[in-house]
Amino acid sequence: MSPQRIVGIVALVVGVALLIVGMNSSHSVADQVSNTFTGRFTQATTWYIIGGIGAGLVGLLMLITGGGGKA
């Protein structure tokens, strides 16, 4: 397995984990109050979700295009 595929798997796993953390924190009391009064989530929750999506897409792209290998 090429190093690019390994990094892709790691990035995909980190992305999914960040997305799960962001989605779980969006249901917290602080985020619900913030969403009620401002119409959006807290900044930390937003960055978890954006970072999770970004890392997941990069990981998926690396897996799809990742190294044909010089076995």
Number of domains: 1
Assembly state (oligomeric): single chain
Task: Give the strand tally.
Answer: 0
The percentage helix is over 70%
If you average the pLDDT, what whole number results?
A: 90
pLDDT below 50 for ≥5 consecutive residues: which ranges? none
Morphology? rod-shaped
- Individual helix count: 3
Helix/strand class: mainly alpha
- Percent strand equals under 5%
What is the terminal-to-terminal distance? Answer: 9 Å
- Gyration radius, to the nearest Å? 16 Å
Largest sheet composition: none
Note the run of SSEs as H and E.
HHH
Model description:
The chain has one domain. The protein is 79% helix and 0% strand. It is built from three helices and no strands. The protein starts with a helix and ends in a 6-residue tail after the last helix.
In a few lines, what is going on in this structure?
This protein has 71 residues and is an all-alpha fold.
List keywords for this structure.
mainly alpha, 3 helices, 71 residues, 79% helix
Secondary-structure map with pairings?
Elements: H1 3-25, H2 29-38, H3 43-65
Helix pairs in contact: 1-3
